[in-house]
Amino acid sequence: MFDVFGSVKDLIKLDSICIDNNVFRLHYKGTFVILVVCSLLVTSRQYIGDPIDCIVEEIPNNVMDTYCWIHSTFSVPGENPGLLGYDVAHQGVAPLSDLKEGETVRYHKYYQWVCFTLFFQAILFYIPRYLWKTWEGGKVKMLVQEMNVPLVDPDTKKDRIKLLVDYFSHNRNNHEFYAIRFFFCELLNFVNIFGQIYFMDFFLGGEFTKYGTDVLAMTELEPEQRTDPMARVFPKVTKCTFHKFGPSGTVEKFDGLCVLPLNIINEKIYVFLWFWFIIVTIITGIHLVYRLIVLFSPQVREMILRARARLAPAREVDSICKQVKLGDWFLLYQLGKNIDPLIFREFVHELSMRFDHSAP
Q1: Mean of the per-residue pLDDT values for the chain?
Q2: Nearest to residue 148, comparing CAs of 307, 305, 335?
Q3: 182 confidence band (pLDDT: 50, 70, 90)
Q4: Beta strands in 61-175 (DSSP E)
Q5: Which residue has the higher pLDDT, 25 or 78?
Q6: Rounded to an integer, what distance in angstroms lies between the CA atom of residue 290 and that of residue 118?
Q7: What is the mean pLDDT of residues 300-316?
Q8: Distance between CA atoms of 360 and 354, rounded to whole angstroms?
């Protein structure tokens, strides 16, 4: 297992300089890594064996397996009467003559694309992070100047704080676009995960949005009344019809039974993803509400920066907040997350004095 997932461990490492927040990381680290691991798990045969095994007379097994994998399998919808294992071989496996009027067989093609779809979704979750990292351009790292550790030479610390104060004095009110870009990426995270829920619903034929609730509802029923929704979406046994020419040139049909071990993994993956996506969507939605409050409430911004610069006097923090705009406040908050609290207190003191002296 370490050989399969060992390369993923590098994606979990936290950066020494933080340029976003925990909710942001929930998308590009948490969800991204989960989807990559799921994609690797689906393609790893050491856990599931062959993804498909089909049984049919007169056709070599390897040929039948390849044919049914390429051309998809199908199952017969509806509740098959009889006792499973006695009157009925498998749920969804029945003669085509059992189809009711207006019913058609249910084809299962998505299992060919699950690994690619999961990896594609992982890339979509990383796009906002890529955009923000490109737009941010290492600004926070440059301004931190290795002051994220408490042990800094006093003279070096004094020079670096002065450089930081000079930067904010000369570039005051010039960081609006910087903050707007970050807020846009946060909104993009919410749009992405909300859209991906419906993308997976489309991919699974309209089954994903109700998948988790159906699984929960099944657990509340009596065992003899249960119909496994996971088996409906990801059947383990299906049918496949092979066509070939007979000795006389007529088309012969061979009805095969296919076992899909891959769906044992798929059903668990998508149950987990349903709950994970719902949780992340709710958390991201709450965070967007919080962000809107921050955008439109200067008082809230003062409280937040005061909490970040907890060692600095409140009057100095309030004085700075009254003299800067949203973009400057956001950059100060970013610096507060990375600079050592003791050093950040000195920086806030020096910046407050500079702003007060330059005020008309």
Answers
A1: 82
A2: 335
A3: very high
A4: 73-75, 106-108
A5: 25
A6: 30
A7: 91
A8: 12
Residue pair 60/244 in contact by the 8 Å Cβ criterion: no
pLDDT score recorded for residue 150: 78
Question: What are φ and ψ of residue 356, in 5° steps?
Answer: -65, -35
Provide the residue ranges of all domains of the chain, joining segments of one domain with +: 2-72+109-358
Tell me the torsion sign for CA atoms 202, 203, 207, 210: negative
Cβ within 8 Å of residue 351, ≥6 positions away: 164, 165, 168, 169, 320
Q: How many residues does the chain have?
A: 360
Q: How many CB atoms lie within 10 A of CB 220?
A: 8
**Are 21 and 42 in contact, with CB atoms under 8 Å apart?**
no
What mean pLDDT is predicted for residues 248-260?
A: 77
User: What's the CA gap between 66 and 86, in Å, rounded?
Assistant: 30
Provide the 10 A C-beta neighbour count for residue 2: 7
pLDDT at 307: 92
Give the pLDDT band (50/70/90) at residue 87.
low
Structure tokens at 93: 């496996």
